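MOLECULE: protein
FOLLOWS: sequence and fold
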Amino acid sequence: MTAPKDAGHIRTNKVSGELNWLLDDLVDRVASIRKALVLSSDGLPTGVSKDLTREDSEHLAAVASGFHSLAKGVGRHFEAGSVRQTIVELDDAFLFVTAAGDGSCLAVLSDADSDVGQVAYEMTLLVKRVGAHLAQAPRTDLPAGG
């Protein structure tokens, strides 16, 4: 028996449930957006669109966190200011990572023929719309010593 496509969909609490719904709405409204997630400042998914499994959401969150961290390093080193958005152009997709408050980020994977301006605009609207939900504090449940 095969598990449903969203068997690993993160639905752990009211806040992540609300984020999941908003991310699903973004994917449904913007045809070129394939996947969307919100990640915490420590690189963990806190909200995911319905088409992402737990494994894929954790992988995408880790990648997005890494790109965002590298971009912040460039901003600091070259005194270029804060990171607003990181865009990675792949052969068959774009990866967008947008700061979303208190260290959290919104990551979107879209088709290669996406209107980059539209995707960026929709992401900005979503960040503004749910700013309180996206402002994630760093995890405090880490074990001692690690």
